[in-house]
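Exercise 7. Predict the joint structure of the components listed below.
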Amino acid sequence: MIKYQDDLKGVTAGRLGGFFVGWPNPPKPAAHLKLLKGSDLAVLAVNGGRVVGFITAITDGVLAAYIPFLEVLPEYQGRGIGGQLVKRMLRRLGKAYMVDLLCDKELQQFYKKFKMFPATGMMLRNYANQSGSRIQP
Ligand SMILES: CC(C)(COP(=O)(O)OP(=O)(O)OC[C@H]1O[C@@H](n2cnc3c(N)ncnc32)[C@H](O)[C@@H]1OP(=O)(O)O)[C@@H](O)C(=O)NCCC(=O)NCCS
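Solution:
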């Protein structure tokens, strides 16, 4: 049975794995755990102690929030877990004025179900840092 949690209780690097599918230089589970801890909000989908899906948000606590990551392990996709993670995160961000994320065009239909709408944006990617590094403030 899939359980959802709003905290990182019981989560160790050993319970994270298999994420960042398709990334040439993915973060290791230890870096994944660090990014979960460093996020303002995280919601996890857990099956028998194993993390099978996660969503994170970064927020200024007043107006804006950004959702950098949403991923469900391939063998768990298509069962509503991704939708649950988005729903639960948007509920937690219910007082934010703006909630933004970037996604591929094919996923716009998925996010439209949550009243999100397409926009244009800009982004920068430093691929040398893809596996994780310490970001200085
Ligand atoms: C996007 C993702 C989180 C959805 O998780 P999930 O548990 O499969 O989501 P759900 O079962 O709740 O819903 C699946 C929906 O997503 C849609 N979807 C998932 N991947 C898709 C893709 N690449 N193209 C188009 N639609 C896609 C499915 O068609 C389905 O739509 P439906 O509910 O109308 O049938 C998952 O596919 C994933 O981890 N993908 C890889 C990482 C990624 O792309 N993350 C999003 C970053 S913005």
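Discussion. Residues 70-72, 77-83, 101, 103, 106-107, 110 surround coenzyme A (CB under 6 Å).
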